Amino acid sequence: MRQNSAGNNKFLKEFNQAILLDLIRIHKGISKADLAKMTGLSPTAAGVITASLLEKGYIHETGTGESKGGRRPVLLELKPHSFFSIGIDMDVDYMNVLLIDITGEILFEKAMNMPQNDDFEKTVTRIEETVISIMKEFKISHDKLLGIGISIPGIIDSISGKVVLAPNLGWSDVDLPSHFNRLHGVPVKVENEAMASAICEGWVGACQGIDNFVCINIRSGIGAGIYTHGKPYRGVAGSAGEIGHIVVDENGPKCGCGNYGCVETMASTGRIVEQAIKVVRQGSASCLNLLEDIDHITIDQVTEAARNGDEEAGRVLAEAARYLGIAISSLVNTLNPEKVVIGKDFVKYADLVLESIKSIVARRALQYPASRLDIVQSSLGEKASALGAAIIPLKVLFGRS
Ligand SMILES: [Zn+2]
Q: I need a labelling partner for 312 at 20 to 30 A (CA). Which of 83, 298, 318, 326 fits?
């Protein structure tokens, strides 16, 4: 019994601490008296918790507020650069790394190319070395690192945290955090890359204050992070959001999943580049013909050509956008979201195709859900997943996970 009671007290203390810390985050400069009023805690209890938060270094005093009779109240806010979090977004050929502090300020950001022949062990070493070098550079001790979030293009078991399948990375049934031997107990959380973007958009991006939204990421594959009622929707085992496998053309190419014409095979970055190469091979009139290395045309080259008025490049992008619009229409009918945010490589050509996607969805989706929908590009661009991954340990601290 006594143990239970001690356990409950500890839980309650941590719970109240997280609530106060979250209010201090939201209100940026708030007094103990106002914290007590907002939470229903007694002024003494609020005082004890804030004293503990000050002692641990999470918060600091920033001056005094206006007096409502009596002494001017001391204002509290999160202490910048006191605690940190690292986010890593991985794909086949790159690793995007980002360091934030407790306030969410981005202190460091780096996109690194990854050799495509790296095996799993080499990738683990690369992640460890990257984290350790950031900690050294910013003089961060292990106890000041709240955690590391890693975003992966694949299915994550939402209960065990294992990577069930990340086909593009060649990983299956992997317990990634258990392989880090040099991070000395720093919490590591693995998240699906589209869900990491959704976490980011909900916390600091286009979906703040919105409860029902979908973030779609387009790069080597296409995936979605779904939020319903203000919470991530993961399905029964974590694979919700695999919208890349919505079939949009039965006669389309074979997908890695075994089906034909999945939207991933019709509108991913790989497909766009592949179609651009085809344009050149067929000898169509296009400025892409002038490129030296035709086998390695990049998405940037295709979008630049389209932006400069190249009709063939524009047609390739428009076709991909049309298929994406068809898939989004199904999504809108199924989920009735308030907002759809499209990110990653899409932001490179969003200005060229977003309006046509909106009109395809307006035409194809049911009028009722379509009329309550906003479709936007991500303002956070390619860093949304890395930032979302870095935000995960912060959400745990603020009791928002
Ligand atoms: Zn598929």
A: 326
- The alpha carbon of 155 and the centre of ligand 1 are apart by a number of angstroms equal to 14
Q: What is the pTM of this model?
A: 0.92
Same domain for 156 and 284, yes or no, is no
- pLDDT in the model for residue 2: 46
Compute, in angstroms, the gap from residue 260 CA to the centroid of ligand 1: 7
pLDDT of residue 5: 62
Range with the poorest average pLDDT among 3-7, 281-285, 318-322? 3-7
The CA 38 to ligand 1 mean position distance, Å, reads 49
Confidence at residue 10, expressed as pLDDT on a 0 to 100 scale = 77
Which residues span the domain enclosing 172?
84-201+385-397
Q: Which of 75, 1, 88 is nearest to 32 (CA)?
A: 75
Same domain, 74 and 196: no
> What mean pLDDT is reported for the chain?
92
261 Cα: distance to centroid of ligand 1 (angstroms): 7
- Please give the distance, rounded to the nearest whole angstrom, from the Cα atom of residue 247 to the centre of ligand 1: 7
Q: Ligand 1 centre from 175 Cα, in Å?
A: 25
Look up the CATH number of the domain holding residue 21. Answer: 1.10.10.10
Question: How many domains is the chain built from?
Answer: 3
Q: Compute the distance from residue 253 Cα to the ligand 1 centre, in Å.
A: 10
Task: Using the mean position of ligand 1's atoms as its centre, give its distance from the Cα of residue 121 in Å.
Answer: 28
Tokens 């069930």 found at: 164
Query: Would you say residue 377 has pLDDT above 90?
Result: yes
* 100's tokens: 């934030």
213 shares a domain with 95:
no
Q: The domain that contains 176 carries what CATH number? A: 3.30.420.40
Q: Which is more confident, 384 or 116?
A: 384
For residue 138, the CA-to-ligand 1 centroid distance in Å is 42
